[in-house]
Structure formats: structure tokens, C-alpha cells
Amino acid sequence: MTLTRPELETDYNLSRSDLAHFAEHGFVKLKNVLSPETIAEYEPEITGKVIELNTQHLPLEERDTYGKAFLQVSNLWQDSERVLEFVSSPRLARIATQLLGVQSVRLYHDQALYKESGGGVTPWHADQYYWPFATDRCVTIWVPLQETPMEMGPLSFAAGSQTFEHGRDLPISDESERVLQQALKEQNFTEVSEPYELGEVSYHLGWTFHHAPPNTTDIPRRVMTVIYVDAAMRIAPPVNGNQVADLATWMPGNEPGDLVSSPLNPVLY
Which first-to-last residue range defines the signal peptide (predicted)? Predict the structure, then answer.
């Protein structure tokens, strides 16, 4: 048992203004959620697993826009006890529960998103395009594993866009970047684009539109994410091929109409 594990188990005090900000804007950034010591303890294991499990081996210039945006490796927790400790953190899951206003949350899946040096933009999108869920009670925590200045491509949000339905049918692509950039601008959604301090994290709803600038630094932007769903979430009939694949991959054995309840979706808080 290490000294940093207790931090992952202790409560983080969310303020009323944090809760109100999330409800209004569809995201919230929270400082000092994790100490530099905790991040330093888990980052090498997460990064090692990304390197080990990454399947993207094309040079950057030969990839499509999605491929240039980041290296994406999912469900690292299944390959590492250390990552499992991090992903199953009651501290992080409790924040998700409070923000969503639900009794309990399950794991949907985790994702490491590593934007390489020279990595391109992450186009505007909403995550829930990919997820066959019956309600909007799902949230992603975005945990940078280093200080993340603007040059490194931190996550940027369209504040309040979680109720904007235009563009929800678009996967991450050049088209989603173009169409949503214009639509969000026309609707006067404020784009919140700020650096992240070490230990600062953000939570965003599945339907909150977001994107990220390129990484123009000479080091990778290392980010770990965990997607939490309301423990009472039911599965909606998939409406696109990505949702069909997600149902099979992340909720094996579950069917539309079921509760999200596969062995890959344990209750975390």
C-alpha cells in the first residue's frame, strides 16, 4: 500500500459554484484534485501501458485527422493493477456522482489520449455520439499527467453546448470541426480554452461539445480519461455503427433496454 493511494480514496470538496458551473456549462475544471506526488506515481505505469498497447504505427503525416489527433488506448485497467487503482478511485468517481446528481456511478471505460509532439487538432465533437445511452447522465474526467500549457493542446469547451442538438450526428472528423466551429459560433457559445495546472482536471458531459488545439511542443501531451455513467443507465438502441461497436466492446452481453451491467462496468461509487 503506497502513500498516495489514500488520496485516491479521500473526498474532494466540491463547492456550490463548481456544481452550478457544471449544471450551466456542461463542464467544470477543478484545481488540486490530484497531488503532483499521486500523478508522478501513476504516470509512468499509464505511459508504459500506452507504449506497450498502442496499435497506431503510421507516421503522423500518413494518418487521417482522427489519427493525427492522439494515440488512443482504452481499458488500460484490464492490463494493469496499478492503472486499475487509478481508474477505480472513489475520489474521482464521487465527484462524477455529485456532478451528475445521481446516487451511484459505474465505469463505462477508460481511455489514454496521448497527443504526440506535432499531433494535430482534435476536431469539435460530442463523446455521446459514440455511446448508446438512454439519458445524458454520463461524464468524462480528463486528467492531464503533466502541466498542460496552450501549446500542448489542452481540452477546450463550448460552454453551455450540452443542450445544443445540432451536430450530434457527427463523428470526430474534418467535417465535424468545420460544421461545429461555424454552428457553435453562430449560437454564440463561449469557447473556454485554458491551460491546465498539474493536478487540475476537468469533467464534461457526454453531449458537451469540445475540441483541442495541436501539440506544438516537443513532448507528448499525456492524458488519462475515465468515463462514468449513472449506475441506473439503460442502453438505448444504437443509432450508428460506432454505437453498435461500443455496445459489443464495452458492454459485452448487454442488450438495448438493459441496464449497463456487464462485467466491464463495475460500480465505482
Answer: none
